[in-house]
């Protein structure tokens, strides 16, 4: 397997794992096998399949597909023995009590659970969710968020982190304005990885610096919705570089060239 390398300021970087990818089981365009082969062709030996949680009205994975997906991952793992293929899910943070659309008794079906905020997820009070989503949409577009909205969004995510074993917090601050430092502090406590998402790119270098004030670790994800984007990591390296982030805090980045400092 030959890894794709990216060089910046005398150091070269490659990705060792992509743990956030979507398939046709939610609204991706590729099959699980196509995502696996895409990662393999780029020298990335570890891939996670993380379709959207079942609470999303538009494109959530159907619960009856969980077993089918697991079976397919087992088949592919036997076929491509040089690959580590993991079964995850991108759960939706659905309400103020920190509930996810993956129930506690369902966690065992997955190798890991990642979670983020998305519009259009149901659970808890549908009217409250709809109002919150509408406000977030409007405030995100205008760039002006009220303190109250930031506090509500932050509280929902903090509760979800505290109540559930979430491996990765996906695209923090995307779609809903939040207090990034407060969230980073909780991620450090719960050992949740903070995502540098090359699909959304919602964080600025200043945002990354803010989150890095807490002792968190970061992970780069493609959040690919098509096989061609699996393993896409360059923009996240640039972002981390611009932020002055210590690259050793990114758990799936390998430094393959000399450090020049
Ligand atoms: Zn997402
Ligand atoms: Zn995603």
Architecture overview:
The protein is α/β, with parallel strands linked by helices and 261 residues long. The chain has a single domain, classed as TIM Barrel (Alpha-Beta Barrel), CATH 3.20.20.140. It is built from 7 helices and 10 strands. The strands form 2 sheets. Strands 3-4-5-6-7-8-9 form a 7-stranded parallel β-sheet. The model has no long low-confidence stretch (mean pLDDT 92).
Number of domains: 1
Mean pLDDT: 92
- Described by the principal axes of the CA atoms, the overall outline is globular
Give the number of DSSP strands.
10
Task: Say which CATH homologous superfamily is assigned.
Answer: Metal-dependent hydrolases
Bound molecules: zinc ion
Percent of residues in helices comes to: 25-40%
What is the level-2 CATH architecture name?
Alpha-Beta Barrel
The level 1 CATH classification is Alpha Beta
Q: Strand order, biggest sheet?
A: 3-4-5-6-7-8-9
Q: Could you please say which CATH topology applies here? A: TIM Barrel
Please outline the major beta sheet: 7 strands, parallel
Order of helices and strands, N to C?
EEEHEHEEHHEHEHEHE
Terminal Cα separation, in Å?
29 Å
Please report the number of helical segments. Answer: 7
**Which structural class do the helices and strands define?**
alpha/beta
């Amino acid at each position: 397997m030959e890894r794709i390398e990216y060089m910046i300021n005398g150091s070269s970087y490659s990705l060792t794992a992509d743990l956030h990818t979507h398939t046709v089981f939610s609204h991706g365009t590729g099959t699980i096998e196509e995502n696996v082969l895409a990662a393999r062709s780029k020298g990335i030996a570890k891939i996670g399949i993380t379709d959207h949680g079942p609470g999303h009205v538009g494109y959530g994975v159907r619960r009856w597909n969980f077993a089918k997906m697991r079976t397919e991952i087992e088949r592919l793992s036997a076929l491509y023995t040089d690959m580590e293929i993991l079964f995850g899910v991108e759960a939706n943070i659905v309400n103020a009590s920190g509930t996810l659309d993956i129930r506690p008794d369902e966690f065992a079906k997955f190798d890991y659970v990642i979670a983020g905020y998305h519009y259009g997820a149901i659970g808890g009070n549908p009217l409250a969710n709809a109002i919150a989503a509408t406000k977030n949409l409007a405030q995100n577009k205008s760039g002006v968020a009220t303190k109250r909205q930031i506090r509500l969004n932050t509280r929902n995510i903090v509760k979800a982190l505290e109540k559930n074993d979430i491996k990765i917090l996906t695209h923090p601050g995307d779609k809903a304005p939040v207090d990034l430092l407060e969230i980073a502090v909780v991620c450090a406590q719960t050992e949740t990885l903070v995502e540098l998402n090359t699909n959304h790119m919602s964080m600025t270098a200043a945002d990354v610096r803010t989150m890095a004030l807490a002792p968190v670790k970061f992970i780069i994800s493609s959040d690919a919705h098509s096989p061609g984007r699996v393993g896409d990591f360059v923009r996240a390296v640039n972002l981390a570089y611009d932020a002055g982030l210590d690259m050793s805090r990114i758990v799936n980045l390998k430094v393959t060239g000399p450090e020049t400092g």
